[in-house]
Amino acid sequence: MRFSCISLFITHSLLYLPMLLCAVAIGQEQDLPASTTPLSAQQTILLPDADYDLMLVGGGLATCSSMSKKSCSDQTQFSKLAKTSNAYLIHPTTVQLFSGAELFTAERASLQQQLVTLFNNLTEVQGKLLTESQLIEQWRSFQATEVLPSSGEELWQQLSDRELNAVLDFLEVPTLSADGKYRLTEQVDLAETTDFESAELYRQFVQLATKKAQAKGRQQAKVLVVTASSRDPFAAVDFYLDAFRQAGAAAQWLPLTAALQHAITDKNCVALPQYLANIHGSYRREQIYADLFNLKQQLCKQGSSAIVAMIADADGIFFNGGDQSLTYQALRHNDGSASAELLAILEAVKQKRLLVGGTSAGTAVMSGSQFFTINTPRHAVPMISNGDSYHALQYGAKAAIAPWPGCRKEQRCPDDMSERQLTYTATGGLGLFPLGILDTHFAERGRQARLLVLQQASQTKLAFGIDEATALLVDLSMQAEGTVQLKASGAAEVYISELLPESSPAQLLANTYSMSAGDTVIWQQGNITLIPTEDKTKLVNSAEPLQSKSPLFSRDYYRSLSHSLCLSNFNAATVSEPPYLIRVSKVDSCYQSADSKLSAKQRLRIITEQ
Prior knowledge:
Layout: E1 3-10, E2 25-26, E3 41-48, E4 54-57, E5 87-89, H1 92-100, H2 109-120, E6 129-130, H3 132-140, H4 152-158, H5 161-171, E7 172-173, H6 196-215, E8 222-226, H7 237-246, E9 250-253, H8 258-266, H9 272-280, H10 285-288, H11 290-302, H12 304-313, E10 316-319, H13 324-331, H14 340-350, E11 355-359, H15 361-364, E12 383-386, H16 389-395, E13 397-398, E14 422-425, E15 437-440, H17 448-458, E16 462-466, E17 470-475, E18 483-490, E19 493-499, E20 507-516, E21 520-524, E22 527-531, E23 537-538, H18 557-567, E24 572-577, E25 580-586, E26 591-592, E27 598-608
Parallel strand pairs: 4-11, 8-9, 8-10, 10-11, 13-14, 15-16
Antiparallel strand pairs: 1-3, 2-24, 4-17, 5-6, 5-7, 12-14, 16-19, 17-18, 18-21, 19-20, 20-27, 21-22, 23-26, 24-25, 25-27, 26-27
């Protein structure tokens, strides 16, 4: 076994400065030591070269495609068979299908019939193929009449997300080539993607999977793409297949979804459209994506053994974004037990034969301590499923099924929960990442507080927040010995929150670690050590002004304050947002690379004022 020598520099120094008053109040943290110790403690740990098992992306991969040209360079060109948008048709046939479908609750059935009247009165576009934007423009600009007292805009505003998606599904038609022989497919161009780091993450996943392939004696990685997190699990198939093929893999779609799992379990593959409708809220996919639906139905008839065989032969498997609860249902049974497919993935990971990746929901679903016994925690590691920071601070966390987007409009939010209620699955997700809770789109959506609230509620020591276009690489090779190597990759940061024993619901308290591309974290016997890349230098005190925006847990405002604190000569910042007092303080020195990427250890305290 090859070993690499990693020097760990552990600092205990802390500088205190007089309290200042400004737009952001500056002050010292009372729980930190008053003395300072020079940066001199050093120890050496020998670890094997990393052989990563997981690549967990925070979402937000801005990728050039024929359906998303805003991420493409000016010279990008796609073939005539490229799909550029979904197609919709207002026609007596599609309107009649929509009219006869049971999509709305009895209390809202009149809304469905008003929409039927509206579509029948859009005479100028009857029988014409429309893009989604064209359809919505015609719909919302419709003016009220004697026949239909409500305007198109009023009807639009009344719809929940669930209802709107159902309406669009029933008006959608297949996108076909001019001769009608081929279904148009979304095409990707990684080389012309303007967001270089997003494109590079696809390539990195394939490179890591290729190492698994080479250990088996083949040169090209076999990558399975799973779109189980999507409401419409067919819509992103072409995108991911093209992206991973351009990155160098032999990519194949694995049509494993919650609908497929239920159909196999119930031995009722004929009812796949009904499972898609009832579980995913996805309609008429067998007509819109006939070729992909046939693949799904064939695999259903072959059963779990065929899926397990595909997993056993793969070098990488990648889970898309959307709703992590759907992916959970695809790989676990109703009683929470692991499916044969999940056990096959776990076994391949333990044998170092398979790289598991995910983005957004495909990352969040990986958390859980069901399978790994490294310092078995006193409490199960939960899977986060919904919520934002301020709703979490106000209403706490609930171990419950997440309310669906738009449930307020339908007056069907479960247990009177807000659509933004922080919810979680107490027993965890798929259980492939045992160290702590996983969260995504992290800094961009200000999710630091929701993560800390869930840690406190579930007594989970560690939690990991991954920014967009950023990945956390995980090597579980030495997990049985109580050691895990982690590395950051990509555009932004991985944030680690370490719940402190003194934390309470009234005073949330955590040490936080921010790692950027190339930084390594060693988890050893429950302890975290952050190792910045060699090209980073320790920041010295500077006169940079300390800046903050409010509300702090919105957009990327918290990350901006954290960076500002690193660059300033202040020790701590206190932000008052009644009824909360939020304090961020330095614990160790910050480190910065030539391209301004930071590494930091800080402390976050959130006090609820009485």
